[in-house]
Amino acid sequence: MEIIISESKQILGNKAAQMGAGLIRKAILDRGRANIIVATGASQFEMLKALANEEIKWSEVSAFHLDEYIGISETHPASFRKYLKERFADIVSPSEFFYINGNTDPLEECARLGKLISKHPIDVAFVGIGENSHLAFNDPPADFKTDDAYIAVTLDEDCRRQQMGEGWFANIKEVPAKAISMSIKQIMKSKAIICSVPDARKADAVKKTVEGSIGPAIPASIMRRHPDSWLFLDKDSASLLNNPTF
């Protein structure tokens, strides 16, 4: 895993988007199409804005949704479907966007998405990590063994408090306890991973991810085993690393 540290979250977002856009363009050049995974949350604001401004043949791109709460409507302010449509899909108009429906039977939805993604090998996964070091909604201890592409998960309290702290919910009781998440193994199948992690509140998770042991207790640590993964940090999220270079 290569680590790239920027002075600000805006520069971080620009660099991550440029790297990802180059990989998307290469996939289109090589195969005529590209398949990507798109994450949500406050950590992705700058990256997604920059990515949407890149020169890419979006009509030749298929996109997959990383995770979604179970039991909230698409119109809810915290809905990741709403987030992705407003901040990305409606702007770039990819040829296909495979959203997670959190308002249907979770097991059936996981099976549906699993069949779809099996036909679309992922070229680039755009992800972030949580304050508890989660990857997607795979909270610690994460399931590193399941072969299922999507799984129904229970969110831990740290994860739910992060969602509240980012302003998506008024209080902890409003944060759903369940979600559908892309699995660790499925994320790791991606040819390349672009991970954007700004802000000081992620500094401890970043340190654990980069310097801690690789295992389910630190889900994001698994990216260190991926041959083509990049971790984009700003000076705040990198502040606890040993010998960070800017």
Give me a quick take on this structure.
The chain has 246 residues and is an alpha/beta fold. Helix content is 33%, strand content 19%.
Summarize the structure in words:
This protein has a single domain (6-200, 214-234), classed as 3-Layer(aba) Sandwich (Rossmann fold). The chain has helices at residues 9-31, 45-52, 80-92, 106-118, 157-165, 184-188, 203-211, and strands spanning 2-6, 34-38, 61-65, 67-69, 96-98, 124-127, 150-154, 178-182, 192-197, 229-234. With 246 residues, the chain is of the alpha/beta class. 33% of the residues lie in helices and 19% in strands. It contains 7 helices and 10 strands.
Helicity, as a percent range: 25-40%
Tally the structural domains.
Answer: 1
Oligomeric state, counting identical vs distinct chains: single chain
Main sheet characteristics:
7 strands, parallel
Based on CA atoms alone, the radius of gyration comes out at 17 Å
| CATH third-level topology | Rossmann fold
Total beta strand runs: 10
Q: N-to-C SSE series?
A: EHEHEEHEHEEHEHEHE
Read across the widest sheet, the strand sequence of neighbours is 1-10-9-6-2-3-5
Q: Given this structure, which CATH class is correct?
A: Alpha Beta
Which stretches of 5+ consecutive residues score pLDDT under 50? none
Shape: globular
SS-based structural class?
A: alpha/beta
* Average pLDDT: 95
Tell me the distance between the termini.
17 Å
Which percent range describes the beta-strand content?
15-25%
Number of helices: 7
CATH architect. name: 3-Layer(aba) Sandwich
